[in-house]
Every structure is written in structure tokens, then in C-alpha cells.
């Protein structure tokens, strides 16, 4: 005669087996994703770390050089401008790219007519391939014939040099980036806004709350989590700015738009120093991981 | 997470093999398996298989056909050699995939390289030493100074197949419109300035003189101008910057004058190589620095009306920046593959009357014949004479378009890229170039001094 404890012990593996069997399809799908992640993300990440401490020409055996690659990158005169520009770009891109989509989402949410049409218009830039979107702005920014200076001229305002000036080049890239990412941000905010129960607004209105009070006391608290998620995602994404300086300015004029990832690209592909490029990539990865850790911590606190 | 770090992609590029992209195997390009497949070889030589790159793309049907024809003829001539794969990826030298292919064992046995990258590949040991095999090359002794670029410590690491000195490319039609004589192009920088001013005066969209300012091509053209004025980018021993001189200052002052005082350079920045070519091909730009190959490039790739363009000598030139390209061999190759690779380079690019120097065939295939490049051999050497005679006899383009460059460049010494860290130096020199083209108040002395400090620091760190 078996004891209850022995019964439980016998039942547990059977239960686990059943559970595994039931979820076999899910595990199968998961395997595919895991293999893809392992092959295309984690394996290269491990390689990146290894290569940043090595010197190799891919012909002779690699040599471990300690922190030499980091020293090379650190002593590069473009190192400081690259980090400053990246930080500045991130800050400006957050100010524009975070606030503008939220405001547009609020307006769209309030609209009673043509909402779907306007939503499509706002999302349209996302459908363009990034390179096409960026190159479109190259024409808009042309100091002689560009759309923007034509508009300024229409209002009798003097034209700007846009990409050709150290004082306007970086903000010009921010405008491109904001325009390109506007659609996705707006849609996410709009989806979050539409989950807010209308009773809350009705109650606030009955209490005499105006538009700004409703936004402050209902909208923002109700969308706090999504705002936080978007903030962190934007920091991580904008710190990796590459395509805009690569296609529009080549890091110039006078290093005014050189970014960390653009400098990494230079090391890896133009200077033939892949190891230094990886060292710089590792530095950026650590910074981004820090932000991601903060995000995870904050989002956990908010969900508990 | 929305996006992945580019660094992961870089590492991925190493980890993954660049398989098959833009390539076609030799069988699909009309070549036939040879003795190597049977394990025996004619003439007692062991069978060997190699791969090559820079096959002209399908869009360039005429040149591709000649290349495929040459592969077949080469294998017939050397039955023990099989060209198992010919890659047609463009550009032929692609730094973004080079190391990934080398790491993954996918780099072709014989690979194309342009001059700015030669020094770096030699320095990093990414090209095979060809010295023991050069004696087998029939035309080796006839090479001009372009071969020096492929030498390091007395050893030869590659073979130039295309070479030319810098000049001044101009649009004859635009010259005529501006009231300038297209048959007497500028010979001094003062004349360039005056011509540019007149061209810009034609009205909206006209640019007198176009110049690069970013993505390393700004520094590259600064170097070309500096060499022309007799200056150097680095000292002969390669340990220090040498451009903070009156010659370096003159390069920037000339541009500043044209950009701001004369307003003859337009306001658009040209930050990569195709940008200026596109602008020149569009037909409203008067002049740019460029070698004779620019004319063919404008015709083939940038929609330029070929007969409108001409190239003349670089104004007041004391030395000419040596541009061009060549072939190196994969350092992982066996000695037999190196020998076979050299034979391919010799057959396809270096033998007068064969391969790409078969001007009779080129003329029949409606390819341009008569341009004064590749300029590989000394004019008095047997190979140099043979190439020039064949070229002259089969010319199908107007030699006058190149005459100014040919005559004006005679006797002017060629000067090579500034060492193995040329690209890093060009990046630094982009800054003064972009500064004078974007800031009216650019302080040239300060810009040169800053760039000098940066280059010295770079060279010191490289040891």
C-alpha cells in the first residue's frame, strides 16, 4: 500500500510530462525563436565581447591585447564629439519624438470625424523605407531649392543652411528622425489612450475638470506605464542613431553630427579596425544595458 | 526591443559567412570544368581551383560577355586551372564584407582592391606575399611607379591593373555657355577661379567648381590638391603630419575664395563619391578634380553626355595623386593557388592584346577604346609601347577629350596614398574641408593646426 507522499511523488513527473506534452507545439515555436536569437543576436554579442579584447586580421591566430582597443577608441579625437552628439541627439529626439506623438495621439483621440484617415496620414512615413525617408529630407533641406527654405521664404523669413551648418545640422537630423518615427509612437499612444475607461473622463468632467486637468489627472496616470516603456525604448533606439548621419551628413560638418554608431562603422569598415569598432560597440552596449536595466526595474515596480 | 545594436550586426558580419551574394558560379557564366575534376592535368601540373571577383555586372552586358569569354579562354590555355567561381558584386572592393568573407573562408582567391585600401591590407597582413612568383610575370619589369604602392619592406603584395594621375575634369558645353573656350581649359588655380565664377554666373543651378567635404572623400581630395601643389600629407618616414604648410593653406584658401568670395561652388555638400559624380553628370557643373576614368564613369554610370566632358592636367601640378586599383591574393591561398591567381591577373589585365587589354575585341563590342588608362607601364617599355599602339589603332572615342591631361601630365611624378592609415587621415582632413565650405569665418590656420595635432596623435598611437 502506497503512502500519500509516495503517491504525490509518483504523480508529479506524470503531471510535468503531461504539461510538457500539452505545450509541445508552443515549445516548438519557442525553439525557432530561440535559435534565431541565439544565432543572430547572442552569438554575435559574445563574439563582440571577445573581439573587443583581441587584435585579429582573420588570417593569423588572434592576439589578446587587453584594453588596447578601448585605449585606441578613447584616444580618438572623434570619441568625445561622438558621445556628446549622441547624447544631445538623444535628448533632442526625446523632447521632440516623445512629446509630439503623444500630443498628436491626444488630438486624434479627441476627434470624432476623419480619425481613421488622419491616423493613416500620420502612420504613412513609417511605411517608407528608412533610407528613402532620409534621402527625401536631403532635398527638403537643400539651402537653394529645398522645401523648407521655400516655406521660410514664403513667410519672408531668411533661409537656413540646415545640414550645411554646425549649428543646425544636428537638429536637422532630429527632425528627420522625429518625422520617421512619428507614426509608430502615435499609434502606440493612441492605443493606450483608447484603453482608458470613458467613465473616468465623464467623472472628471462632472467634477468640473477642464482639458488640461483631465490630461493631468486622468490621461497621464492611466498611460504612465506605456509612457515609461516608450521613454526607455526611445532612449535605446535614439542612442543608436546611424542612418541619418550616414546618409545626410557623413558625420559633418566638422564632426557636428558624428555619432557613436557612425564612428563604430568608420572603425569597422573604413579603417579596417574591427576590434576597435567592437570595443566602442561594447561601451555603447553597456550604456544601453544600464538604461534597459532601469527600465526593467521601473516597469516591474509599476506592474506589482 | 525595437532595434538591435549595430555592433551586433558587425559581429554578425564576422560570424556569418557572406555566402553567395551577388555571385555566380563559373558554370552559369559559360565556363567549363577542366582537368581538375578528373584529377589529372595536362603538362604534368597539379590541378588547382581558384575564385575571382570583379566580374562586370549583368547590367553591363558587353563587358560581362568579354569577361566570361576570357574565363573560358584562360581555362583552355591553362587546363590545370579551374576558375570555380566568379563574383560580380559591386563595388568590387567592399570593406563592409571583406573581413567577414576572409574570416568565413569566402574571400575570393584573387580579389580587387582600390589604391586607398592597399596600404592597410598590407599592414594588417591580409594579402599574400607575391614576391617569390613575380619572376613568372612577363610584363613585371615594365611596370611604372604604380607598382610601388603594392610594395612593403621590399616585398610585393599585389599587382596594379588600373592606374592614372589626377587631373581637372570639365564640362565643355557649360564652358561654351559661359563664354569660355573649351579648348583652352584653365592651367592655373587663378584661371580655375575665374572660370568657375563665370560658370556660376550662368544662373540658378550652375556650379563652377564642385568639391567633396565628408565621408573621407573630402580628405582624399584635399590630398589630391595638396600633392598637386607639391605638398605632402605625412612626412617621408610616415611618423608626422606634413600638411600644415603654405601648400596646405593654399588648398583651403582657394576653396574658401571660390565658395564665399566668388560664390561659385554652390551650397550643396558632396559627402560621398557618387554625389559629386551625379552632380557633374547632371550637366550644370563646370569643373571638378578627377582622373580620366571619371569621363567613362560619367558616361556609363551617371548619365553624363560623354562628348560634353574633357579632362585636362591638374593646374600648376608638381606631383599627381596616383589613383587606381589592382588585385591582391587571399593570404589563405596555397602556393599553387597564388601562382594560378597571378596567371589570371596577367592574362586578364596585364597582357597587351589579351583580356581587358584586347582593344580589337573591345572596339567590336562597342566598349570605349582610346582613353589614356590604365597607365601601368613605362612609355618606353615593350609593354607600354604595345598597349599604346593597340589603343591608338583601335580608338573609337575622341582622343581630344583626354589630350589636355595626356600632354599636361607628362613628366609630372606620381605620388601614392599617405601610408596605411590613409582612411583615418582622410577622415580627419574632412573637417577642414567641410569647415571652409560651410563657414565663411573658418580659420584656416586653426583648422590645419587642429588637424595636424590629430594626425600626429593618430600616427604616434600606431607606433
From TrEMBL, chain A:
The chain crosses the membrane at residues 24-43, 82-108, 120-141, 161-182, 225-243, 279-298. Keywords: Cell membrane, Membrane, Sugar transport, Transmembrane, Transmembrane helix, Transport. It comes from the Bacteria. Coiled coil: none annotated. Pfam families: BPD_transp_1. Residues 83-295 form the ABC transmembrane type-1 domain. This is Multiple sugar transport system permease protein. PROSITE patterns: ABC_TM1. The keyword Membrane applies. Its main location: membrane. Belongs to the binding-protein-dependent transport system permease family. It is a multi-pass membrane protein. It comes from Streptosporangium lutulentum. It is found in: Cell membrane.
TrEMBL record, chain B:
Residues 22-43 are annotated as: Disordered. Keywords: Signal, Sugar transport, Transport. Residues 1-18 form the signal peptide. InterPro entries: Bact_solute-bd_prot1, SBP. Gene3D superfamilies: Periplasmic binding protein-like II. Pfam families: SBP_bac_8 (PF13416). This is Multiple sugar transport system substrate-binding protein.
